[in-house]
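Q: Please design a sequence for this.
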């Protein structure tokens, strides 16, 4: 895939703090929204995941704040999955203003939880590949 998956979001006034810029926790909400949008675009629903007996879990998130966002700003939030061996995967995300200014960079580590056993499943990419109608959005 040449371009990462991306979703556009408009900053809402209620997401800002007393300084007038986006509250730090909202950046994580934007990233989460982009991840779920990618799953939906790839053809994976929450019901489909539950039907397979798995659910995505966040294990770690690192946010690097670069520039402030203000109410009314439009941003594009990218999402790229990186697969390795084992039970986890990485997600690289950038929140970028429409003028190209990078507002934040996020790196997350996630996995898929077996909902019955309450343990991480091995090779989560196999589940994504099986469930997705467009696995290429995950780089699979």
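A: Design:
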């Amino acid at each position: 895939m040449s371009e990462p998956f991306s979703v556009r979001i408009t900053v809402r006034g209620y997401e800002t703090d007393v300084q007038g810029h986006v509250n730090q926790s909202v950046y994580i909400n934007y990233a989460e929204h982009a991840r779920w949008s990618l799953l939906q675009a790839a053809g994976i629903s929450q019901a489909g995941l539950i039907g397979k007996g798995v659910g995505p879990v966040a294990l770690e998130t690192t946010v690097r704040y670069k520039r402030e966002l203000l109410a009314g700003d439009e941003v594009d939030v990218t999402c790229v999955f990186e697969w390795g061996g084992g039970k986890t995967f990485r997600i690289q995300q950038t929140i970028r203003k429409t003028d190209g200014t990078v507002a934040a960079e996020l790196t997350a580590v996630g996995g898929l939880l077996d909902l019955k056993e309450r343990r991480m499943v091995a090779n989560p990419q196999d589940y994504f590949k099986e469930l997705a109608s467009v696995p290429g959005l995950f780089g699979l």
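Q: Thanks. Anything notable?
A: Strands lie at 5-10, 54-65, 74-83, 88-97, 102-114, 119-120. The longest strand covers residues 102-114.
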